[in-house]
Amino acid sequence: MFLPGALAKNLETILITKFISGIGASTAVSLVGGVLADIWETHERGFPMAIFSFVAFAGNGLGPVAFGYVELRLGFRYVTWIIFGVSGIFALGLVLFLRETRASVLLARKAAKIRKETGNAKYRAQAEDERESISVMLKTSLSRPIRLFFTEPLVFVFAVRPNLDYLRLEYL
Q1: pLDDT tens, 16-56?
Q2: Phi/psi zone of residue 119: left (φ > 0), alpha (ψ -120 to 50 degrees), beta?
Q3: Which residues lie closer than 8 Å to 71 by C-beta, 6 or more apart?
Q4: Which helix (H) or strand (E) holds 9?
Q5: CA atoms within 13 A on the CB side of 158
Q6: pTM (two decimals)
Q7: CA separation for the pair 102, 99 (Å, rounded)
Q8: What is the DSSP track for 39-93?
Q9: pLDDT class for 117, splitting at 50, 70, 90?
């Protein structure tokens, strides 16, 4: 949603694109720890987790300062263009340099390879047989975060805390 935000002609479009971007960006908080655990062995995880933790917590304070300077010098649209460019570079790097780590996907690929090599259709991964419908997956994916937000105190605190940081910076 960076491109529509950068090209927006009115405040309403900017607000809508920022809202949608925030929803999409929130997944990183819950997924990064698991991804790092999949990429590195247990004894190698310390440094990557430290970098992620630093960026996650320091970004709330340093991001507005750094991009506040960019906004003063170049204008608010350049903030979005810079984030768009950096995000594109990282996304390209993810596609080019990371391999799949999800066990169900790896097992399904392995079963398909064995089926192809042997011609025997009995080789199947459990995930291939237990695949849920799109509507069930959507219902689960959309309702679980809301339920966790209202029933788990830690989820609530970690979801609300960044917003308080932004409010504090906004009204100082």
Answers
A1: 888 888 777 777 777 888 888 888 888 999 999 999 888 88
A2: left
A3: 78, 79
A4: none
A5: 14
A6: 0.64
A7: 10
A8: HS-GGG-HHHHHHHHHHHHHHHHHHHHHHHHHHHHH-HHHHHHHHHHHHHHHHHH
A9: very high
